[in-house]
Amino acid sequence: MDLAFEVPINPVSFGQVSTSLLREVYARGINPSIFPIGNVDISTQIKDDDFFKWLEENLKTTLSSHKRERPVIKLWHLNGGFNSVSNKQILITFYELDSPTKAEINISKQNVTVVTSSYTKQIFEANGVDTHFVPLGFDKYNFKEINKEYFSDDRIVFNLCGKLEKRKNHKKVIQAWAKRFGDDSKYYLQCAVFNTFLKDEDNKRLFNDCTAGKKFFNITFLNYLPHNTLYNDFLNSGDIVIGMSGGEGWSLPEFHSLALGKHGVLMNAHANKDWANEKNSILVNPSGKVEAYDGVFFSKGADFNQGNIFDFDEDEFIHGCEEAIKRTEENKKNLEGLLLQEEFTYSKTLDKLLELI
Predict the structure, then answer these.
(1) How many domains does the chain have?
(2) Gyration radius (Cα) of the chain, Å
(3) Do 332 and 262 share a structural domain?
């Protein structure tokens, strides 16, 4: 098959999804042109010599063999979507807000644009843009159930994931959780929210701000986890994942947690609604919306990333936590969550993308 990819191959969410897609391409015996966006960094991936060799060989031959007639699947932000190595570009993007700008609308119209949330598709259609919704999949290479005991007592462990920022509502989640469960030895909160786009000292300052400087023995902030085996271990060590982000393109850690059999307290909004339901999750309905601007990742008046994120009521969130505790006490294994591994696969994702070529 004549095909090209222009994707980031690195440790962040875009890079993890790109690598999963490329693994599926490799498994089908396809040898595409591969244009990396930024530096190639596969240090977080589980070692796979055959796949790594295939990746290296295709990267090496791309510039000497690629033709612009070859369609390209590009995974990137809308900002940068005009740049293309092909006359036909399939642009996959994670869009997290609700107010597409003129620039974002125009760029989307110039490509075959794919979004990973049916909510985002509705937002763009309301603005006159025809987009395609393609769900992501479960990364079976990096994430697996680990059958081991992590703690010697009967504590119930909550996990909080994603890079620390306003959009994900981390601070509000932590403060609400601390009010109800802080310093209660029955419950623990593990926060893997280190933001690699910020300096170490800035992360530490924000961690401290999340608890208003108060120390709770049952709230832990983890350092950066540099390998997927460590992150897989972290996901397995929890009982309940918290996913109260105000805007997501898929919610990768929360999705994988449920697929590994963990219970979840999830915002009933945005991309979560494409895979979370009342059977596999405790859903918390949003209370409304607030502006997304934080002066760091989202700045008001810019050409990109404008709009609002979903908010939640603290009491409703805590009620969701208490309901998730009940489910965990009944059965630590979320059997409905495990079904996500087969329902959402990167084989299905790639099939849907190839249909657009």
Answers:
(1) 2
(2) 20
(3) yes
